[in-house]
Amino acid sequence: MSEQRYPRSLSHIGISVPDLEAAVKFYTKVMGWYLIMKPTEIIEDDSAIGEMCTDVFGAGWKRFKIAHLSTGDRIGVEIFQFDGAENPENNFEYWKTGVFHYCVQDPDLEGLAAKIVEHGGKARMKAPRFYYPGEKPYRMIYMEDPFGNIVEIYSHSYELTYSAGAY
Q: What is the reported pTM?
C-alpha cells in the first residue's frame, strides 16, 4: 500500500460544557455558528449510538446531552453536557497533554472579544497583540468562554499569520 501524502481536513471538534442550552445560545449568538441539530439526550442502552458511546466512554456513562453546530467554514462543533459536568475555576492547563484551546478568525477581533466578555466570558490577555508590530495588522488575543473553554481569536488567516514566521 502506498503512503498517502495530503493534508486531512478538520471535520469537527467536541466541546464539553456544564449547561448545553446556555452554550448553544452563546455559540449561536456570539460566534454566529449555525445550529444544525438541536439539543438531544443520548442514553446508555443497546442502540447503535448507545453502544458507540460505551465503546468510547466505557460502561457507566449513563446519559449526556449533545447539540451539533457548524462554523462559517463548515467545521462541525459538537457541544456535550455530561451528568455531573463541572465548570472548573481554571481550565487552562496548557502543560497537560491534549487540546487546550481552539481558535476562531474575525477581522473585528476587538469586537468579538468584547462580545465574549459581554456574554459571560473573560479576557485571558489585557489587550490584543500584534505578530508584526508596526509592520503588519495581524493580531491575536486569548479569551475564555463562559464555560471555561479557552478561545483564541485571530484577525487574519492562519496561513497569512504564520507564512512569514510570526516570531
A: 0.88
